[in-house]
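Running log. JK asked me to keep both predictions on one page so they can be read side by side. First protein, sequence followed by its tokens:
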Amino acid sequence: MSINKVLVVDDSKTELMFLTDLLTKNGYSVKTAENAEDAFRRLAEEKPELILMDVVMPGQNGFQLTRAIARDPQYADIPIMMCTSKNQETDRVWGMRQGARDYITKPVNAGELMAKIKALG
């Protein structure tokens, strides 16, 4: 399966703009969400083929949201990549335990992100 539609979940408008711009320039269709509630609304509108998930967000954090999405039979097949400033190995391991398929730290290296997305697709 090739990935075309990406949902970016991040509470930072700067990160949303950066990732949207990067992904769009690389041929991806991008939707954004700023929190868990927004993310579930976007999922209901149109199912993405990849979710890029921030961890540190108000309300439900990215780990909790990843677990909720990964355990929902309707969305469990969507790969989730944590995209966060939390760069400790324990954070990466915890993210993967919640259901993430990959983990990348900010500041995002464009080449690394594109390679990871291609590897998932």
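And the second, directly underneath as requested:
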Amino acid sequence: MNLPNAITTGRILAAPIVTVLLLQPSPLSRLLAFVLFVCAALSDLWDGHVARSRGQVTSFGKIVDPLADKLLLVAALIPVYSINLGQSDTGSLPLLGVVPLWAVVVLLGRELLITLLRFLLARRGRIVAARSLGKRKTLAQNIFIGSAILWVAFLTPGFAAPSGSAWRWFSALHGWFTTTLLTAAVLLTLASAVTYVGTFSRVMAGRNS
């Protein structure tokens, strides 16, 4: 297995560990989940760079790399949503209160739809690699989820928040940052879904993608 594919496999293996760490009602476990999630997300950028620079772009990578992104998204987003829902009385995201269910449905629904379309294309012998809009979508999703993991970690009982105005300023900025990135992730998710559905329609009609 070449290096990019090995990195992708490592990202797949990291996903369930992120879930397990998040589900532990401990600030330390959730902070460790944040570190592991960030490392896994950054590995997505690294393996893409390595694959292109070494000419090691493979059919395996084109298929499995997007699936690894989706698995990491599911592994982190569902626990974060569930945990944050129970924290509504201890801290509120600006404008949203908590991570809303409709946003989770949009983010996960898009991934389910695209996975299904990729499967249908693969059955016809066509593999469509991730496009630039899809990569920007993944980047926005990952930054949002990383920020949201920190948000729920800071609200976990037992976390010793620093006192003083600096922490209050940071907390307020962190809340707005998380809300803004969620909005960007939702918009990019919808836009990339429309783009991919268009590509799928052209391929199924026998035109170039």
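Observation for JK regarding the second prediction: The two ends are 29 Å apart (CA to CA).
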